[in-house]
Structure formats: C-alpha cells, structure tokens
Amino acid sequence: MVTPRAVVRDLHTGTEAARLMSMLILVYSVSPILAPLVGSFVAEAASWRAVFWVIGALAVLAMAMVAAMLPETRPPAARAQSSLRGAMASYGVLLRDRNFLAVAFMASLTLSGFFVYVANSSFVMSTHYGISPRMYAALFALNAVSMIAASQFNGWLAARFGIRRVLRTAVIAHAAVTGLLLVLTLAGVDRLGVLVGLLMAVYGLNGVIVPSAFVVAMEGHAARAGTASALLGTLNFAGGAVMVALVSPFANGTPLPMVAGIACCSAIVLVLAMRALRLAHATAPVSA
Asked: 51, 72, 215, 286 - which has most CB atoms within 10 Å?
C-alpha cells in the first residue's frame, strides 16, 4: 500500500484522491475474501508448505509487474532530492507536524481495531460460538465485503460534503457503533448475529475512515509523499501490533476482551478527530 498511496498523492488531491484511495482499499480488502479459500485449496492439493511457495511466486510476479508497468510519478525536479539525508529530513518534518500525526494515528488505530478482530475472532467464533472453519471464513469475508461496499461511496461523499466532514462524521458513527457493541456485551447480550451485524457496520465505516484519513494526512506533504506514505504504513502495523499485544493477556475465548479492544481504539480515534478535525475546518473540502 505504500507505493500506491504515494502515486495517488503525486497525481491527485481532493475528492479524486479520496476516490482512488477508496479503490486501493477495495483491492486491499479483496484478500480477506480470497486468501482463506485459495489457501485451503492449495493446502489440500499439495501441502501447507506449498502455500509459502505460492506466496513467493506471487511476490516475484508483483515485483515484475511493478518494474514493467508502473512508471515513475514523482516530478523530475523532486527526484533529485531523493537521498538518505533527504528521507531523514522528511521524517523530521512529518514527526513535527502535529496535524499529520493526529490524522495518521486515526488511520492507525482504526486499522488496529481490525487487527484486534483478526487476532481474536477465530478463538471467539470457534470456542465460544462453536462455528465451523468454513463458516468463520464466510463471516470474516462479510467484514471485507462491508468495507469494500462502503469505501466505494467515499469519493461521492467527499465530493458532496467535503472530505473532512465525511471523515469526522464517520469517526463519530464508528465510536457510537463500537460503544453500543461494548455496552451490549457488558449487559450480557451474547448473540452471534448481534456481534456479526455490528462489526459489519464498524468495518464498513473503516472503509470510509481509512482512505479519507490517508488523503487528509498527506495533503500538505506533496513533496514528501513517499516518506509520508511509508510512515503511515509503519504506524498502521505498529499500532496493530501494540493493540494486539495489549488485548492478548485478557483474551479468554469470550467476545468481551476483543470488543473492549476494538471500542478502545475507536474511542481514541474519536478524541484525535476532535483535535485534528476542528469544526472550523469540518466543512472545508480538501482542494481539488
């Protein structure tokens, strides 16, 4: 995702960038649908070791396609500044930009909630609810479908209402749904349908929040789009690793620790949004 984000920022801003970021989320979200199915077929046809050979072959194919089909999108004048010293200087600028960091952590923690789900849901679904592996794969895929469907409206919403307003509204809705899920879980409502339905809504909102946050974070850093994209990617996975590590000690096979971790991520994102997306800027769209 690092290079595609930088390419989008090199070529587009505003609502068009939001639309293309949402398309990247679509491609990225297809993997949770296809991976379990393809992996099971490969493992059954050969062995579990064959899965790694297939992944390696796909990685080589992807590198060849990038080399042959993806041209350089950074302006020639900016390429002359590409160096280790330039990259370190760019990281320094980004790390001193409080607004960039706030929005970057919004994207990171939104995705961290999904990583908490990935790390815990298989145990919750199989141990607590007793569903089969195939059913779990289908339920897992529903979240990806929800994210894909919602992300495709993001460009239209950004063009109509302004990307900051869309992002702020999606964050509020995300916190409300995760808060409702936590309250219901604490109240003893333990139904698979409720958990699956509300999580589908949560991850549908992910499809709006994440690409919008990427666009807003990178809008003021055209000259260092690659570095900004790399830092966003690092924060995304680092945040996920930290949140999974924090939730794991409390995992007991029930939905509560997982739901609490997801709700915690969402609450922090809401606080960051109130800081980074002030009301005065909420109605102002990113320049097209």
From this structure: 215
